[in-house]
Design brief:
The protein is α+β, with helices and mostly antiparallel strands. The protein is 61% helix and 17% strand. It contains 8 helices and 6 strands. This is Protein MgtC.
């Protein structure tokens, strides 16, 4: 039997150590994700780490270090497809980037474990856990810092709610006022509001717009043109 010719106790124990290390460390990363109710939780991160370790260990067993390095390159690119599956776009917001990055790190932990560098795999796991837990208070603190519109790159939009029959003229009016203020419009969308009203949402081209200009524009639309609901919002992005 081919199994008897391929089985060697010490290489088998070496593989066992790689698998167990990847399983334990992947589970540790996944437990934190599961606790926070992320899309990719405990089982996903554990399986990603184990799978990466298995491929790298197999390459090392069959072809040595050179082959394992080649497989690591494929693991790095292949995990990108899995990570893309947890990234979701909701309007102007993108969710799941942190989860995808964590999956990528789990694959790195598994690859390191599969290369028999247990201490390095443990170190990377600790760093990943610190990044996902200890940095959260810092992120929250930064998010609470007030910012001025002119200091960030963002997507700006101005919204007015008008009766449905007046949507056409009011849309032209909104675009005209924005362009007169040298705020070119990238897109104008219509969203239904109740039975007889619509919201006209003008997305601006500019990524640095002073808050005072938008405040003045919104106030003018309400005061001069009698628009009951006029507002603006900003969505920051990388």
């Amino acid at each position: 039997m081919r199994f008897l010719t391929l089985f060697h106790l010490w290489p088998f124990l070496d593989t066992l150590v790689s698998y167990v290390t990847a399983f334990v460390l992947g589970t540790a990363i996944g437990a934190e994700r599961q606790y926070r109710q992320r899309t990719a939780g405990l089982r996903t991160n554990a399986l990603v780490a184990i799978g990466a370790a298995a491929f790298v260990d197999l390459g090392q067993r069959l072809g040595g270090d050179v082959e394992s390095i080649r497989i690591i390159a494929y693991v790095v690119s292949g995990i990108g497809f899995l990570g893309a599956g947890v990234i979701m776009k909701e309007g102007m917001n993108v969710r799941g980037l942190n989860t995808a990055a964590t999956l990528w790190c789990s694959a790195a932990v598994g690859s390191i474990a599969g290369s028999d560098m247990v201490a390095e795999a443990v170190l990377l796991t600790i760093v990943v856990l610190v990044a996902n837990t200890a940095l959260r208070p810092l992120v929250d603190a930064i998010n609470r810092i007030p910012f001025a519109g002119s200091t960030v790159e963002a997507t700006y939009s101005v919204t007015i709610t008008v009766p449905t029959p007046a949507a056409g003229p009011m849309g032209d009016l909104l675009v005209g006022h924005l362009e007169a203020a040298q705020l070119p419009v990238a897109d104008l969308n219509t969203q239904k509001r109740g039975e007889d009203h619509v919201a006209l949402v003008a997305t601006l081209v500019g990524t640095n717009v002073p808050d005072t200009e938008l405040d003045a524009l919104v106030a003018h639309l309400g005061r001069v043109h009698g628009i009951d609901h006029a507002t603006w919002q900003v969505s920051t992005h990388d």
